[in-house]
């Protein structure tokens, strides 16, 4: 069976021969403390390679060093593959990669105030818990630090080539017999870090090619802004129209009347922050929403630890959707948020949407 391009996070195969198909099943559970450390596994593979030779080791390329890219590198190493990761930015982390001098970069850089909407217990990798000193919800810079610690712990950094853009992924000339793939690469200049796989080639810059047995595309799907086509907006609206993709901090909206379209976490985050400097902020909600705080007021624990328990999975099978929706309504839209006083209608199909977190009960009204 011919090799192909994978877009998954894990190889999910214990048999190296299945690398030829690159079919991605449901990721297997990680047995913490059973298979030994990465160093021990690499020593075992090195001892086997002395007798077998390196020529039998298949080569894999990973495109992108974000969350999926890092786990893909680790999975390739666990399967005994020779892996190289190409990252267009000068640092790892994908959309979480941001430093003090990068706020003006184009691309999906985090806005300065961003805090993860999932707690550290639900966000961390099962074989690498977050440090106990971390807060329940991680600011973006701590999450990037966590990813760096993860890469250092499992010795992934030496497999990553930073500031390298992938221009093309094509079948090699002998693909029919070998299944190999040919990558066209170039060094990424400052300001060209984003949109790793789909960027056009620039003249005057050196390019080179590499061939691999398989390719994992871990470039994510947040590298381009998705803007709705609203009839007449660009031609008749005199104000500034921007996308959350380019939002960094609220100062450009000082003294202005702002409309934020959307009801997910990013929209609420931006609406709350912009309200501190804007004249007035409106939040356009299409279909109602479910509101909750990051910390459950009854237990003092992160809300996602309360909402993602086995009991809730059992309840979804044991009771009707209407009853379970009522339970979620009572559990999430509590007094600290008070959505009805702010004109927010509870979304009746709560089980089919995510919850919107409102940190510390803040909102956008300024009455």
Describe this structure in words.
The chain is an alpha/beta fold. It has two domains: 5-217, FAD/NAD(P)-binding domain (3-Layer(bba) Sandwich), CATH 3.50.50.60; 233-361, FAD/NAD(P)-binding domain (3-Layer(bba) Sandwich), CATH 3.50.50. Helices cover 24% and strands 14% of the residues. It has ten helices and twelve strands. The protein has helices spanning 38-52, 67-78, 120-123, 140-153, 175-178, 233-236, 265-274, 303-307, 310-318, 321-332; strands at 5-6, 59-63, 82-86, 160-161, 164-171, 181-187, 207-212, 214-217, 257-261, 280-284, 291-292, 356-357. It has a five-stranded parallel sheet with strand order 1-8-2-3-4, with helices on one face. The longest helix is centred in the first third of the chain and has 15 residues, at 38-52. The chain is globular and about 60 Å long. The model is unreliable at 1-38, 195-204, 350-354 and 358-367 (pLDDT under 50). Belongs to the FMO family. Residues 38-47 have a biased composition (Basic and acidic residues). This is Flavin-containing monooxygenase. Keywords: FAD, Flavoprotein, Monooxygenase, Oxidoreductase.
């Amino acid at each position: 069976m011919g090799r192909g391009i994978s877009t998954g996070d894990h190889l999910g195969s214990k048999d190296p021969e299945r690398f030829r198909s690159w079919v991605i099943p449901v990721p297997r559970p990680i047995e913490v403390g059973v298979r030994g450390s990465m160093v021990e596994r690499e020593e075992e593979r090195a001892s086997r390679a002395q007798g077998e030779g390196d020529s039998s080791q298949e080569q894999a390329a990973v495109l992108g060093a974000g969350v999926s890219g890092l786990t893909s590198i680790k999975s390739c190493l666990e399967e005994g593959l020779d892996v190289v990761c190409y990252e267009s930015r000068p640092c790892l982390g994908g959309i979480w990669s941001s430093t003090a001098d990068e706020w003006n970069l184009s691309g999906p850089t985090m806005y300065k105030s961003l805090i993860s909407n999932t707690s550290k217990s639900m966000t961390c990798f099962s074989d690498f818990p977050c440090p106990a000193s971390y807060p329940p919800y991680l600011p973006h810079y701590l999450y990037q630090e966590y990813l760096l610690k993860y890469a250092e712990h499992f010795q992934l950094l030496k497999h990553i080539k930073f500031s390298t853009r992938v221009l093309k992924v094509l079948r090699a000339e002998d693909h029919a017999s070998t299944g190999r793939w040919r990558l066209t690469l170039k060094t990424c200049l400052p300001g060209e870090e984003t949109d790793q796989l789909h960027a056009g080639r620039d003249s005057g810059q050196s390019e080179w090619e590499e061939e691999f047995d398989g390719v994992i595309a871990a470039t994510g799907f947040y590298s381009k802004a998705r803007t709705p086509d609203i009839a007449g907006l660009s031609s008749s609206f005199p104000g500034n129209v921007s996308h959350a993709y380019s939002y960094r901090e609220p100062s450009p909206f000082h003294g202005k009347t702002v409309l934020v379209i959307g009801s997910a976490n990013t929209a609420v985050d931006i609406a709350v922050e912009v309200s501190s400097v804007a004249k007035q902020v409106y939040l356009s909600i299409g279909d109602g929403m479910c509101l909750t705080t990051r910390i459950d007021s009854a237990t003092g624990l992160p809300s996602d630890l309360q909402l993602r328990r086995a009991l809730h999975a059992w309840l979804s099978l044991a009771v009707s959707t209407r009853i379970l929706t009522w339970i979620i309504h009572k559990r999430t839209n509590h007094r600290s948020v008070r959505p009805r006083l702010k004109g927010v209608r509870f979304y009746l199909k709560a089980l089919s949407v995510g919850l919107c977190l409102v940190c510390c009960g803040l909102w956008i009204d300024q009455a």
